Structures are given as structure tokens and as C-alpha cells.
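Example 3.2
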Amino acid sequence: MKTGLFQIRVGTIFFVFLQFCIRKYMKRIILLIFGLLTVFLLCAQPAHNKAVVAFYNVENLFDTLDDPIKDDEQFLPDNDYHWNTERYNAKLKNLSLVISEIAKLDGGLVVLGVCEIENEQVMLDLAATELLQPYHLSVCHHESPDRRGVDVAFFYDPSRFKILGTKAFPTIVPNNPDFITRDQWLMTGVLDNTDTLYIVANHWPSKSGGEQRSLPGRLAAGQLGRHIADSVLNAHPGAKFIYMGDLNDNPTSQCIISEMGTKTKPENLTNYDLYNPMWKLFRNGLGSYAYRDSWEMLDNIIISGGLVNARPGTYKFRSAHIFRKGFMFTKSGSYMYYPFRTFAAGNYQGGYSDHLPVYIVLTK
């Protein structure tokens, strides 16, 4: 009996002592628990050392609704292209297949620039497709003043890329105040909490009306691209700058080589140099767009010397590629071996796009 009473008293004293300790050291205990949870969560997150940055001209991704301020009449159910809900959904499904395959690349897709989209909603519809839902892509869109109503935008992985800011740059052609085209869209963000990237999405003026007649528009676009690069690189020496898009010109063109001042080899680059890795692919006979049975490299990804010569432990440029899968090509007919497009000569084909995506791999 005495032993039982003794045990009860000891237990009571211990309980009172425990309550006293908890009250006195509660703040420290909470901080300790919070610290342990933080360490656990950080350790649980995957350590990334590779990333994929890509660009894709998706060939006229229009919705089926009439926008009175855009020239979208062709892409309406009762007009030229009979662009109805069935065709729109088929286009979304096709593009989602391509983008999901890019997302499966080693390193994971962190940023995808796109062009030839009508508005933000088509981007959201594309991100919501069955194949892309698992990647939880976010949208960074800019409404351009383009007469045809097409814009440039970004998909990005919000778990790895955090946006710091955006800015639009209009392309102005001297002595042609009525000239209107897509803006150049700069997105700045932090990749994997370590590297700040400055990424510009583009869709330069086309060669409609002939190469020489349309040249001033692309010359102005190239000059603007160099201006954006210089403004970033002068303000942030060694900045990791990526300039990508459908430039409607090959890497060997005057607009890219002269106006943007791109280098064709990665050796001996300064932090203020721009390097175009697509030049080598083009010289090897590859391209992102087929025209008159020849490949052209209209889709370019141009990078700064700071991304090539990055310090150890941070992301640096590793390689450049064209994304090609067998299902993305036409299997027969006049356009055999061309990219399997949505429309050809005004006729519905039910394909993906007339362009192939391009991408670069970054590694630590």
C-alpha cells in the first residue's frame, strides 16, 4: 500500500515538474520543433542539378470565339477554317502530347516559351489538358498589339521557377509608324532558388511580301533584341540571359549575326557576348521548319556568355537540341517528312504544328 502511494506521489511530482518545464521552455521547444520540421522538409525536396528550357511555335492556337479587336475571323466555326470545338480540342490534345514529352526529358521542363497563341485562355486550356495537368504548369502571358491577334507567352514550373518581374518591349521600325508586330516579352525569375534567369520570348516579323520588303521589320527586331540584352547585361554583369523565339530567320542571317551580334562558337566568350548554339545545328543540316524541301532554323535560342561561363555550383549551358519524335512528322503526300501541321495550303490536316520545338539543357 505504501509502495503504491509512493509511486502515485512520484508520478504527481514528475507531472507537475513536466508542466513547469513546458511552461518555462515552451518557446524554445516550439522553435526546436519548427527547426526540425524545416530541416526535414528541405531534405525531402529533390535536389535539382539539371533543367530544360524550351521554345515552341504552336501554329495558330486560336479559340473558337470571335474577338472584335482581333483579326481572328478565319478561326471561327462558320468561316474559312471551320474552326470548331472539335478541332480546337484536337489541337489542344496534340500540343499537350508534344509538351508532355518535352517535360519528360532528363532535368524536367522549367520554362517553355510559346508563340502564335491568341490569348491567355488558350494557354490555360492547354495547361488543363489531361496530359499536362500532372505538371501543374503556370502561365505568364502578354497581350501583344499584333494585327493578327497572336501573342507570345511562357509556361513555367512554379515549384522550380519563381517570377520576379516582366516587361514588354515594342518593336519600332524607323520611318514606318504604322508598323505593328508582336512585342518582345522579358520574364525574370529564379530557378531552383539559386540562379536568376532573364528570358525573352519572341516572334519576329515574317517574310510575308518577300524577304527584302519585310527585312526592315526583322532588322528592327534584331536591334531591339540586342538593346534588351545590353540593358540586362550592363545592369547585371555575368547575367544569365536567354533570348528565344521564332525569329523568322536562320542563325546565319544579317538580322541575327549583325544586328544582335551573336557568336557562333562558345569559346572565349565574355559576359557581354551572345552565343547562338542553333548555328551549329543549322550548319549540320538540321532545322525547326521545312520549306521547299529544305530545313530552316527559324526557331532560335540565344544565350549570354554568363550562362556559358557560369561559376561552379550554378546552372550553366550544357547543350542545344531540336525536339523530334516520329509522330510529329507527316507520313505521306506532298509534305512527307515535314512537321505534321494543323493546316497546309488552307486544308485541315489535324496535326501538331508546322514548327518543331527547340530546347537547351542547363546543368550544375
